[in-house]
Amino acid sequence: MRAAVAVALGAGTLIGTMSVAQGTQLEFLRVWPDVIAGANPRAVATGNFMDDPELDVVVANYDSSDVSLFYGSGYGTFVDAGAPYATGSHPTAVAVGDFNGDDRPDIVTANDVFPEDEDGVSVLLNQGAKGFGAAIGSATGATPQAVVVGKFNDDEFDDVATADNLDDTVSILISKGDGTFKAPVPLRVGAGPLGLVAADLNDDRIVDLAVVSNADVPASATVLPGDGKGGFTTKLPPITFDPLVVPTSIAADDVTGDGATDLVVADEDGDSVLVLRGKGNFTFEAAGTFTVGVLPSGLAIDDFDGDGVKDIVTCSPFGSTLGSTVDVLRGKGSGTFDEVKSFAVGTGAVAVVAADVNGDHRPDLLTANPEGGTGEGTLSVLLDATGGLPVCTGDCRIGGSVTGEDLAAMVGIALGGGTLAPCGAGDPNFDGQVTVEELVQAAANALSSDCVLSPE
Asked: Is the pTM of this model over 0.70?
């Protein structure tokens, strides 16, 4: 069942979707424990793989050369779908699209291989209740590090583009409608392309591409306007960065609030995010540099506080007193942002995606965490709790109700028996402790039928 909005205001009280005032603090509730993934996960994506209301998750595991699939409960928790699905060697990125026109979300990975391996991308076709079919490999340029999905022409199938790090190209793969693609069309870009985004950059309803490359000094971004027929032009001059900038990721959205699509770039060397204001004609100008965590990797853009202004998220695998974090820049309008606020996630987080995984119409966060790159990695889930908990106070398991075990965990924390990590839902005011009043509220919720999440 999909969870309805559940924001705890008092014992057993639930309310619906809410707008959050600008003065409200951004908060996220980490679901505990993290979900166990495969070996060295590098990327994460979401999709309705089971044809039900709940959003599901796929994680690309670099060392085990497979993807792990997790089915959503609708509350923000996930269950392992079973054995992972093999891909090409060392998947570096994952995306979701419909590559055979059956209206089911399929999976595509970019694999860290050379062209002669013929599996630069792997497609896993969704077979409904049967799961996913065996990986179908298609060639790209050498060692693709990013993959994006979009409709590059006017047929019913999604197409794919990859950022080919060793070939200094972006490969365009036009779908044949059966999980395979026409021969890749390489487009020359800057040296060492690493991050790639597909978006309409000039408001003509045609998908364009933008890529960041960091093997040259200065590093650069290249904009590739689409023609709507599967082609892209390479005639625009590159956008060059300051010589000290080392871009790793790129995203696109209107973060300045002027109606034009902007570009957002994560700068690994500067521990910052760069905003490039779009002018609606494929030209961009620097609009600001904003400090985030150490070695930022991955980007997501959404409105996390419901104020109508886009916010920016990146993840930092190292260096914070919190350990690995997601770092949120809250938008204030006109391309300005509050000081970064960080939230702890699993060790080594390298990728982040924003999606509503508990049905409360607020975007949540998911990160892929290599956990040091040895053995099993993890998936962290952070529920958007801005303006109030997205679950009832005391629902430690994020299961839709408060149990005796939840109350016992809260008592142990209140008595100094551990950290809040296993029961963030026991701290509705986010002050870092469980109080007597919060215990009373949780006990009332345990006794109240109103505290059970209901289907929409």
From this structure: yes
